[in-house]
Every structure is written in C-alpha cells, then in structure tokens.
Amino acid sequence: MKIHLPEEMTEHEPEIKFFMELMVRKLYTNRHKGFADNTTVGAQFKLLEAEIAELKQALEREGQFETAVEAADVANVALLLGMRVLRMTRPSFNSERSLSLPIPPAAAPPYAGATSTYVGEKPPEAPRHRMVPHNPPVEGAI
Prior knowledge:
Blueprint: H1 13-29, H2 41-61, H3 64-86, H4 90-100
Helix pairs in contact: 1-3, 2-3
C-alpha cells in the first residue's frame, strides 16, 4: 500500500508509518469483530466512545506503547465508522444519523455574556495559516 504524503509532512513519515502499522495489527487482532458493515452508525459511534474511554484509561494507567496501541484502536474504530457512512446512501445516512445520535440543545455562543479582558485595545488577531493544496496546480494546465 502506498500513501502520498505532502512534502511538508515527509519528515513525519516514520511516525506515520509506525502508527499505521499499529492500526493494521489491531485490525488484524480484532478481525473476528468484522468491519462494522452490519451495525448502525449509532452503535459504531458508541463503540468509538468506548474506545476513547479505553484510551483515557491507558493514558492514566499504562505505558507509552500500550497507550499508542489504544490510540490506534480509536483510529481504527473511527476509520470503520467513516467507511460505514461512506458506503451508505444519502437518505439512509440521514435517517440513521437522526435516529442514532442524541442531538444536544444548541449551546450559547462562547462570547455570550463574556466581558473583554482587554482595556482600550482590541485583542490581537489569531495568526492566519495559508492553505496549501494537496496537489499543486501544474504550470500551464487548464
């Protein structure tokens, strides 16, 4: 399997490769569970929440490698959830989404009722990051 990494990420290639290998090992270990084709989006999401809880426990009680393995497990469940929804028709996705996940009440905007800590000046602007295209356009292409 080959994956293209943008040039800006090639310095992280060894770590990405190692983590992906952990993911494949965990997928192989858990192959008896299947690939989530016969579950609902809600059931898959609950499994993701359970895996995140396991990751939290690993962070609190386990070593670094065990924690990384649990992080790979979380990534795998998220991958399976993503694969599941991409295989669905739009109507069935909309139907399952509305039935499976609790929709929390709309939260107040974070600025509601807040007062500024800056006196006399506007707060500094956050730095803006330039988006770099994954595949830059070829010069002379239409």
